[in-house]
Structures are given as structure tokens and as C-alpha cells.
Design goal:
This protein has 336 residues and is of the alpha+beta class. It is 43% helix and 15% strand. The protein has a domain at 6-191. The chain is built from 11 helices and 8 strands. The strands form 2 sheets. The chain has a 5-stranded antiparallel beta sheet with strand order 3-2-1-4-5. The protein has a 3-stranded antiparallel beta sheet with strand order 6-7-8, sandwiched between helices. A hairpin with a 7-residue loop joins strand 1 (193-203) and strand 2. Helix 3 (55-86) runs parallel beside helix 5 and helix 4 runs antiparallel to helix 5. The chain is globular. The model is unreliable at 331-336 (pLDDT under 50).
Length: 336
């Protein structure tokens, strides 16, 4: 991670009056430099209650890799969606035939499939990933690292087989190493910022151009008390959305991850029907009976989000996503 963000190098050097590097500080930096959906799982993995190599730690290792793959999948899907809308990008028939089924019920195996095939589509089209480091990182070696997890998750993570304590301890050590390799490969994520674009205010002073003041919450943190900031741009970008940004100074360089990643914290509890609403960062998990289901990053219980004021927008966006990704492409027309 320090290779991508040189400012982190200072945490790798111990002070003159210290004998060892404080690994608690290193852990804190890892958590806050990964996007929150990944960072919060690392925070749990680093917690004192999960230090013993037992079933609880093994389950958290699985949860961390699953959230990591889920987030990367949603970044790739969001980019492909935008690419497909902007130009007649040919999609392989395999993708068109399987995408709706794969996205309607998310699993670790489906995340792996998405990462592999969407990355290939972007490459074959002659384009580049939004996070340009993916051009080199998402290679055969990386996919082999991903392929390890799905069958293990199905057998062990879902309690299909019983493990002795010795087997659990061995797997904790083995899986920690494999998770570490994935996170090392994805350490470039530290160069990007995950943000919630809360609202945009237009300010116009006499004889001057209008400025668009964006109220932003930075979702890179070691806790859920996210840092808020205000940035003025000469143009406006998507509001009420979770965005992945390359640079605050370049508002055009972003990916809108909605409706796959959403933030309910700005919602105002202004009626009784919202009393059960939880404020958190949520990730999409399933589309069933014309209804979107989400999982929280801190909220552990199942939450009904249909009462959100912007839920109809999320539903429309998801339907548009399915339509865009499953429309057959006239490859011959595109070639001409």
C-alpha cells in the first residue's frame, strides 16, 4: 500500500525511542486506506475478540474475502454499465445469457465470475479499467487466487463439513496468508476515495460564474464517524450517491456505485414508517419479488429499505442495469 501512497512509508519506520513498530497503528492505516466495506471487515478481523484461531476467526476471514470480492465486482459492473451506455460495446453472449441470474442472487462464486468476465470484456474492447492498476493486477495469477475461495466457502463457510479444532487452526493460518495475497494485490485501492455525495448547493455571486458546493462524506475511515467536507466545483456531479473518486480535484473522474452500494445515513426519519430504518452503508445482495435486498456494513440484522425516500430511484436504476446488460449487441453492426 505504501508503494501506491508514499506518505504511508512513515508508518513502516519505528521511532528512535521505540523498539518495535506499533502494529496497532499499521492496522488502523490498513483499515482507513481500504474502502469502508472492506476496511470494516478488516477492523473486525483485527479486533481482540477474534485473535484466537477458532471458528469465529475463520468465519471472519471468509466474510472479509467475500466483501472484498463483492466490492470489486460492483466497481467493475458499474464501469461496464457506464461504458455500455456511452458506446455500443459488444457483450459476449455468455455474459448476456448469465448476467441477470448471477446478479439476482449474489454468491462468492458469482462475484468471481463477474470479476473475471467483466475484466475480460473491458480488455477485449480496447479500453482500460477505471482503476487503471486493474489492467495489470487482474491477471491469471489473481484469478487463481480468487478461484480458491468459492468451493472452500461452500463447504466450510456454510458448515457443510465439520472441522476439528486442529483443522480450524491450520485453516486460519492458511487462509490468512491467501487473504493477505488478495489484499496485497488490491492495495492500489488506497489511491482512490469512496465517498457519499450528500447534496449539492449552487452559489452564484454577482458578476461571477456559479459554483457547485458538494457536501461529501469520506467513506475511508477506521470507524463509522466519517469525515465530512465541502468542495466547490465549476460543474456538478451525481448527488445522493456513493461514488468512487480518483481525485477530489477532478470531479469528472468518478464511478457511481448506486444502486449496488448505498448510504442511508442522510435519510431523515420524518414518519413512523421509517422508525425501523437503520443508517449505514449497505451493499446489494439480492433482487427477489421485484424487491432489492441489502446487507449493512455495521448493521447485522436484516433491514427493510423500501421506505427510503430514494428507494424508487434505486429500483429504477437496478432495472435499467439489468436491461442494459442483457440487451443483445449487434456485433456485426458495431464492427461496421
Amino acid at each position: 500500500m505504501a508503494e501506491h501512497r508514499p506518505s504511508l512509508q512513515k508508518y513502516l519506520v519505528k521511532d528512535d525511542d521505540e523498539e518495535f513498530i506499533d502494529h496497532r497503528i499499521l492496522g488502523d492505516q490498513l483499515i482507513k486506506n481500504f474502502p469502508w466495506p472492506i476496511g470494516v471487515e478488516l477492523r473486525r478481523l483485527f479486533s481482540g475478540t477474534l485473535q484466537r484461531p477458532d471458528r469465529g476467526r475463520l468465519d471472519q476471514i471468509f466474510k472479509t474475502i467475500e466483501r472484498t470480492m463483492q466490492f470489486i465486482s460492483y466497481v467493475l459492473i458499474s464501469q461496464l454499465w457506464e461504458e455500455k451506455r456511452k458506446r455500443e460495446l459488444p457483450l459476449p453472449q455468455e455474459f448476456v445469457d448469465q448476467f441477470q441470474r448471477r446478479i439476482e442472487t449474489t454468491t462468492l462464486g458469482n462475484f468471481s465470475w463477474v470479476i473475471r468476465i467483466v475484466s475480460r470484456i473491458i480488455r477485449d474492447s480496447g479500453g482500460h479499467h477505471f482503476m487503471t492498476e486493474m489492467d495489470d493486477v487482474l491477471d491469471r495469477k489473481f484469478f487463481q487466487l480468487l478461484d480458491f475461495w468459492a468451493p472452500e466457502r461452500n463447504d466450510i463457510g456454510h458448515y457443510q463439513i465439520n472441522l476439528t479444532q486442529d483443522e480450524i487452526e491450520k485453516r486460519c493460518v492458511e487462509y490468512e496468508e491467501k487473504l493477505s495475497l488478495i489484499l496485497q494485490a488490491l492495495s492500489f485501492l488506497s489511491r482512490y476515495k469512496l465517498v457519499t455525495m450528500r447534496e449539492i448547493m449552487v452559489r452564484k455571486v454577482k458578476h461571477r460564474e456559479a459554483a457547485f458546493h458538494h457536501h461529501i462524506d469520506l467513506l475511508n475511515s477506521s470507524d463509522s464517524d466519517f469525515k465530512a467536507t465541502e468542495v466547490a466545483y465549476t460543474s456538478y456531479i451525481d448527488s445522493n450517491s456513493v461514488l468512487l473518486m480518483k481525485d477530489f480535484k477532478e470531479p469528472g473522474e468518478f464511478l457511481n456505485l448506486s444502486p449496488l452500494v448505498i448510504d442511508t445515513r442522510p435519510e431523515v426519519i420524518d414518519q413512523k414508517s421509517k422508525f425501523m430504518l437503520k443508517k449505514d452503508i449497505f451493499l446489494y445482495t439480492r433482487f427477489q419479488n421485484d424487491r432489492l435486498n441489502y446487507i449493512g456494513t455495521e448493521v447485522t440484522e436484516k433491514v427493510d429499505l423500501t421506505m427510503l425516500s430514494f428507494y424508487p430511484d434505486l429500483l429504477d436504476q437496478f432495472r435499467e442495469l439489468i436491461t442494459t446488460m442483457t440487451q443483445p449487441t449487434d456485433v456485426h453492426s458495431h464492427a461496421r
